[in-house]
Each structure stands twice: as structure tokens, then as C-alpha cells.
Amino acid sequence: LFPGVRQAQWLTKTKLVEGLPPAVQGIMDNPAHGLRELEERAKHAVSHARLWDTAEAAPRREQYCPVLFENLMHICRLMSGKYPSLTKRMLARNCRIAATWERESILLQVRGLSGILMNSMTPIPPVASKEEILATKEHVLETFYPIAPTIDLQEVNVYKELNDTGQCFGDGYPYSHPHTLFFLESANVRTDRFRPEQLRAKMLMFAFGNALAKAKALHGNDPKVLEQPVVVQSVGTDGQLFQFMVFQLNTTDLVSNDGVKNLVWIDSDQSLYEKAQCVPEVKKRVVTKPAGIFGFQPDTFKKFLALYLHGTV
């Protein structure tokens, strides 16, 4: 998506809200959850991924990005001792999503690998109130006239309109609710990675696709405003910079620009740490910056953990 999130908003009939929703912010700000006590573990997670996990002078992104993700997820799982319901989660990889909808007179489909998907036995409660949902009727979606909003989308022949929440899940799968999608942009060459704006657009499209497929599985294919909105979160990272997103599907009536809109909260470009000094910096035979130094940003870690806890605490 060349225009990024703006185009994804039109395709998904979505209103953007900057920052994280109050429900997630409240988890971060509540000292009872003990997020601050895990900051030292998070620092060690960064050190392990960036400084200790390789014999090379500087680890490659394709190596340290997934290692950092696994380290952070391990810290998140430690919270299950305090909140046992966190054990009712399952992490699935290489799952495919398919969701089809009509926008104005255009048939659209999002289909493909939806990152690493964390599923839950229970859905995330709606983060916007009924009043906030109804207020979206007044929101005017941005258009790209005279450019078509589908200008850079791939045109294909659709022989079957699929709405599938994941080909790796069978009937009766207990972890049936999509919770959070994780996208790792770990390519070592910059041109092979999504730029942050395009990554956020991808995150929005796949969060929407998972929510729409789930809504249709629960409520059928008839377009309608949902009594119980579907919430799906998304986290994207290149191993240093993080993108956080909470998407709420309020309606499956997507043809017209009128009426209730969907909602997305985005917190962009949050750095977990500043440049990691893998090798010492030497000037005139004097070490000016020793190896092992990095500027840790605890708030970014707290946001990652708060999204993991959301829907449980």
C-alpha cells in the first residue's frame, strides 16, 4: 500500500486514533501489575539478542530480531504465575488468513500469511464504548480523488469468496479468538524490509482481515453493525523500532462511506533501545564508547507487555 495507513483506512472503513486506547494505557499506569519489576529482565533480553547471542562482532538483524521477540514473549509468559488465565493462549506460526468484503462497488480480499498469531480462549473486550462507536458516524473518510484508492492493489480473479480465520485451525479449536498479530521485519537489507508506514498499513489490513473473518464466522455474512465488536491487536518490529496497534471492528457493513466506522489506535515508531554498541568505539587509541552500551526505553517494553496482558487483567 503506497499511501500507507491512509489508504488502509479507506479500504477498511476505519477511523484512526493516535496513541493507545485507555484500556491499554491503564494497564501500563497501574503499579499493581508489577510491570516496572520486569524492566531489568527486559534489559537483559536486549543485551542477549544484540550482544551475547553471537560470536560475530555485530549480529545481523535477521538473527537478533526473532531472538529479541522470543525473549520478550518469555518475559510476558512469566506473568501467568500472577494471572493464570494467561495460560489460555496459543502462539501459531505460518497461519493463513482470508477475508473478503465489498467496498463501494469493488470486491476486496486480504489473504496470506498473517505473521505470528497469538490466539486466546476468550476475546478481547471492546475498547470503545457504544457512544464512541456511534460518534464515528460523523467521521468523514479521506479520499484520494482523482487517484483511485485501489491504485496499487494486485488485481486477481477471485473464484471463491473466502472468509477463513486460519487454515491451521480445525473445528472445535479451543483457542479460537485472534488476540495479537506479531510482524517481524527482520531482513538485514533495508530495502527488503517494509518501511514503518507500510508496515503499519500491513498490520492494519491483517488485523482487520482476522477480525472480519472472525465476525463472519460468529454472526454470518449479512452486513451489520456488531452488537459485540471484535478487537484484534498487532505489533510490528524490526528488532529495535516497534509499532503498536489495537483494531476494533464495529461493523461489517463496508460498502458505503456512511454510518458507523471501525476504529484503530496506533502508537508509532517506539524505540525499545538506542543504538547498541556491539564493539567499542576507539578514537586516537582511546576507547570513547565501550561495548555493551545501549539506551533502554522502558515505556516501549511496558507497551509490549500491556498489549499482551490486555483482555486478561
Automatic annotation (TrEMBL):
InterPro entries: mtLSU_mL37, Ribosomal_mL37/mL65. The keyword Transmembrane helix does not apply. One of its GO terms (molecular function) is structural constituent of ribosome. Pfam families: PDCD9. The keyword Repeat does not apply. GO terms for cellular component: mitochondrion; ribonucleoprotein complex; ribosome. Keywords: Mitochondrion, Ribonucleoprotein, Ribosomal protein, Transit peptide. GO terms for biological process: translation. It is found in: Mitochondrion. Belongs to the mitochondrion-specific ribosomal protein mL37 family. This is Large ribosomal subunit protein mL37. It comes from Falcunculus frontatus (Eastern shriketit).
